[in-house]
Amino acid sequence: MNTLLARLLQSRAFVAACVVAPGLWPAWPLFVTGDSSVAADPAKYVLHHLGFTAACVLVAVLLLSPLRAILPRWRPVLVVQRHRRFVGVSAFVYAALHVAMHFVYEGGFATFRTDWQKPFILVGLVAFGILFILAATSLDRVVRALGSRRWKWLHRLVYVAAVLVLYHQISARKVFPEQVLWLFGPLVVAELARVGRAVVRGMGRDAGDRALGGGSGAY
Prior knowledge:
Helix content: over 70%
Strand content: under 5%
Largest sheet: none
Radius of gyration: 21 Å
């Protein structure tokens, strides 16, 4: 099973399909089932769906680091790391579509003059700005220009963006809080597990160093 999953994750086409499929979901209630609750305001439904999908893809890319630390030898985790940049840029693309849909739904820049003063919209725009910077600096030539160390520090802003997206999703009431909890909860648990694993390993190394030091002193 793990081998099959690893082979699937090696394929850029498969990963791309997994990223694109959630964005196409609105076509199902709009054109297949004809859900009346969605058809009543399809633009609003698409707007909220794109925002939530952007959050989902962002969480997915953030999960890659803790999963690699927690399961360093699990092949599917190792294989999917090669698509990290693609998934990260996809989160920005969904966020850009969400912002564009907001302008369409709200009637363009005229309404935006007052809307941006709302805290949840301002926070969302800051998060979008961070994602834009991260996407723009994902090109190989930019990485080389910045240097590996500065590039890594810059891309840690993704965690700031995640916190802002969490606030944006909750305060905008685009989804039920339970959905936000189910989305960001696993990320928090995974990060705590990574920190716990690092602490345990650090304590183990310290204990080993003390044992070696004591042994050398005794002899």
